[in-house]
Amino acid sequence: MLRTRSGRTLVGSDPLPAAIVALTVVGGMVDAISFLGLGKVFIGMMTGNVIVLGFAFGGVPGFSEPGPLVAIVGFVAGILLAGCGERMTSRRGRRHWFRHALVVEVVFLVATTALAWLAPGTSPLARDTITALLATAMGVRCATIRGLAVPDLVVTFGLTGALIGLVQDSGTAAGRQSARRLGVVLALGLGAAFGALLMEHAGLRWSLLSATAMVGAIAVAVRGSELP
What we know:
Elements: H1 15-37, H2 46-57, H3 67-88, H4 94-118, H5 124-148, H6 159-168, H7 175-201, H8 203-223
C-alpha cells in the first residue's frame, strides 16, 4: 500500500477508509454479477433499478423481469436491519456496529452462494431469492457506511457526487481528499470489470463465491484492526 513520508497511507492511518474502498471493489463486482447473471438487475445502485423499472413500464422488450423491484425491497429490508443493529450497539458506537455489519453481510452472502450452488440451473424463484438476499446484504452495508459518514467515501450511492467533487474541487481539494474520491470511482469500475470477467469465464456460482470470500477477508481484517 502506498504511504507518505510520515508513514500514513493514502487513506490515512485509520483502517476504515481502506476497508470501505475494498468493499466498493466488491460492490462493483456484485453489481456486474447481478446484472449479467440475474437478469438486468443492480444490487447496490438502486437508481439503476428504478430506471430499469421505467423501461419495463414503458414496454421495452426484455425488461419485464421482477428482479429490480425485488432488489429494491431487499435493499430497504437491509437498511431497516442496519438501523436495528445500530440501535442495539449504540452504546459502543457506529464503528463498533460496522464490524458486526460485515459479519451480517457475510452471512447473507454465504446463504446466497449456497443457494446458487444448490439451485439447479438457477430457476426464476431461486434467481429472485438470490437477488433479494444480495440486495439485503448491500442495504446493510450502504446504510452502515452512510451512518459512519467518512468524508468522500460513500460507495455506490455517492459515486456521482464523488465524481462531481473530484472534478469541481480539483484545484483546491487536498491530495488525500482527491485520492479518496478517485479511489471510489476507480474501485467501483475495477470491481465491475473483475465481476464481468468472472461471469464470462467462471459463471454465477464461482463469481458469488469469490465475492463472498473477499468480503469475508475484509471482515476478518477489520475485526483484527483497531478502529479509532
